[in-house]
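Hi R.,

Here's the chain you asked about this morning:
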Amino acid sequence: MTRIGFLINPIAGMGGRVGLKGTDDVVDEAVRLGARPVAPRKAIEMLRALHGSMDQMPDRPEVQWVTCSGVMGAGALEEAGFGKPDVVFDAGDETSAKDTAIAVGKFLEADVDLILFCGGDGTARDICKAAGPDTPILGIPSGVKMYSGVFGVSPARTAEILMAFLEGRLSLAIADVLDLDEEKYRQGEWAVRLYYAAQTPFESSCSQIAKVLIEESSDAQVKQDIAEDLKEEIETNPEVLYLLGPGSTVQSVGTSLGIDKTLLGIDAFAGGRLVASDVNEQALLRLLDKYAQCRLILSPIGAQGFVLGRGNLQLSPEVIRRIGIDNIVVVATPAKLAHTPVLRFDTGDRELDAQLTERNYLSVVVGYHRRRLVKIAA
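And the predicted structure, written out as tokens:
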């Protein structure tokens, strides 16, 4: 029998759609702006996928679930069909990093074989700090910006990883646990730091590798070439709304247009001017009501390959559907693509993800009038 400690950070990812670029220390602000919990739903999605896989096994793996009460774990397990778990920590209605540390301590006392959690990089940090290096961890992705290598690429893929672990088909690997300073992030500074190395079940097609910052000496010129290519298109279509996503490559496009493009936010350009800066989901929907046509310019996260679902949660499924998947323009330097073999989409809507991935390949702008076909991960 495998003993799994299971924990949900209920507030993880809440700041994404409302444009707060994280949830640390700003939960009240996120709620005021209309944010709703996303982690419990993603946890249930993963657990239901796991339950379905286990039901199909002739020799169903035996699992003993050790968890927290209510929204920190037990509620999701029961809703997914796993019955009454062993509740070792009574969580309150409002939770914090302190609750995570206490829960992990209880898991260690219960001698769990693995800690499964739903959250983001901050949750991974808190768990590693409390658990130490000897207990393997596995994350269901639910944060705003997940740069660590301990997550599955989606809830469904995390279920596949855990199933393989339970069957003894996966060995453990050492993965980096990274986190970004959210206060600096909100001010437009990208400060990513390595905090821990953790053991995790690893499967190359399902596990998320840690973010890699990739830049070569020639990248500045390549980014300028990409920017000139897109500048031509944008200036030719003044009636079209162009949404410029996060990252230095897309920021170069803003520079070529003569605007002060935020490095880490989503900005809107139309008719030769900046019409909105650092917008959230609701502001995006209002802009889409105003403009009949829209194009979205994004760059993938280095090595991980995520185009949607990491660091740009303002681009909700509703926003993407309004824009239209054929109006997504992906840009990347050849140096980044050399370390990023596939592109990934994790919008939180499985039907939309399927529509985005069914094309198998995506044409990526890699220079001035230069395109490259890049494979899309299933």
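Residues 219-376 form one domain.

Let me know if you need anything else.
M.
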